[in-house]
Predict the 3D structure of the following.
Amino acid sequence: MTTFDLRAWSGERLERVERALENWVGVEAPAGLGEAMRYAVLDGGKRLRPLLVLAASEAVGGNGQAAVRAACAVELIHAYSLVHDDMPCMDNDVLRRGKPTVHVKYGEAGALLAGDALQALAFELLTPADDGVPEAMQARLCRLLAHAAGSAGMAGGQAIDLASVGVKLTEDQLRQMHRLKTGALLQGSVLMGAACGEVSAAEYAALGDYGAAIGLAFQVVDDILDVTADSATLGKTAGKDAEQDKPTYVSILGLERSRAYAQALYDQALAALDASGLPDTRALRALAGMVVDRVN
Amino acid sequence: MTTFDLRAWSGERLERVERALENWVGVEAPAGLGEAMRYAVLDGGKRLRPLLVLAASEAVGGNGQAAVRAACAVELIHAYSLVHDDMPCMDNDVLRRGKPTVHVKYGEAGALLAGDALQALAFELLTPADDGVPEAMQARLCRLLAHAAGSAGMAGGQAIDLASVGVKLTEDQLRQMHRLKTGALLQGSVLMGAACGEVSAAEYAALGDYGAAIGLAFQVVDDILDVTADSATLGKTAGKDAEQDKPTYVSILGLERSRAYAQALYDQALAALDASGLPDTRALRALAGMVVDRVN
């Protein structure tokens, strides 16, 4: 296997995703709303979820147009969740990606509506009337995204998170919360990429295992960074977890065991890719590395 | 044509919808979230949108299982919009359908998340993995719902509404706001019902005209009721529009001309049904009457 240049691979894909988001987000919206939607989405973030969608789709030889739409849709769900999560009634955060949060800039009502509209737009992007994406594929993509975003996924995890402030969770409970809160959408990204092609049940299951492992790894690393990085590097307020008395992997396992756990999850992710039997999973491997080695 | 008993027709359909909502809403959610979702949806509301879906589907001989799912999905979008709309940063309403609003009962964060999860659930209901609903139909239903709910529909209308407090709108601007804010989802309900069957372009267009007319009529009547009904009858706070200095049909056209306008829209709705050429549109006709003659 030749060496894989993740930076070059990502660069090309990110350009495609940014251009698509630029064309699709907020363009049909009344002026104020469209501006808030674009502010929330454009020019920010690592775009990990879109990259996972595209990498998984390429690994299975998926439909390129479907994959770009799925990549953008997943990012819109992620972006809306950040907008709502930052609001005063939730985390009350004023800084995100180094910029004022949406409600600081557009008011609480504006942030609420922008988030709501972004969620709807995600499903609109997945269901074009004429774009060469088979309708059966559109339906499967909507099914995966709705499940990952909803009460048995991201929204459910946020509800558990909300109920857990100041509560002592066991490691199992913490894992279950994060499986939903962050893991469901990360795993969903991988599965949506897979759904852009034709995969066997075994390949699909292996990609699901990969997605579950990196989903959890992402959160473990997030918890580590919250105590080891500063706000400038993170682009958001560091040290919030401890300040809000939120249970984290670091608070339960300690720093060293958290690091070891992240590494073990990385190994699991790679083992799942090997088990998939798919011929070229280099981008997915490299993204798993990025999840674990990131500094913000 | 025999006389049509709307009460009997609705009764049967409402029972089916209520049972479906009971089975589907909040059951997969962590306890607190599921409870708030169910509180927001169950045991309340006239279910006008679900009835429109079912009536349109029956008029075109649609897939019954798809129609029940579409009926519930539309109601979830409506319910989530009420939950978010009632929040302190929006209308700050404490009473809805005669009960404390969701944020009063479950807190603002709980209401925010319940609304978010209800929107996701709407798309989940439309995309069952195994329920005899063809995937191409699922995709079309998602497309219609996402468009009706999003920034070119309901959320867009709410953004215009938000920006219009204390602003003098022309009748055209007011109509445009309501076309999006209330009309898009009501029209979307009719079109989703149509999408549960096979319709010609002419039939689809006629049903769209019907939906647009009753969508606007609904809002005109809403504005009339806000000044003529009391809170107990409405199940929500009456007189809020004037108090908040919101532009309404009554404030622009006056009461009598608003009533005449509602009647003209009713006539338009019926003319569209005649033009559709569909053999049995009695339920749709009766629902148009209900929209115009309602007292709450």
Notes: The two ends of chain B are 29 Å apart (CA to CA). Chain B has 14 helices and two strands. Residues 201-228 of chain B form the longest helix (28 residues). The CA atoms of residues 96 and 236 of chain B lie 5 Å apart.
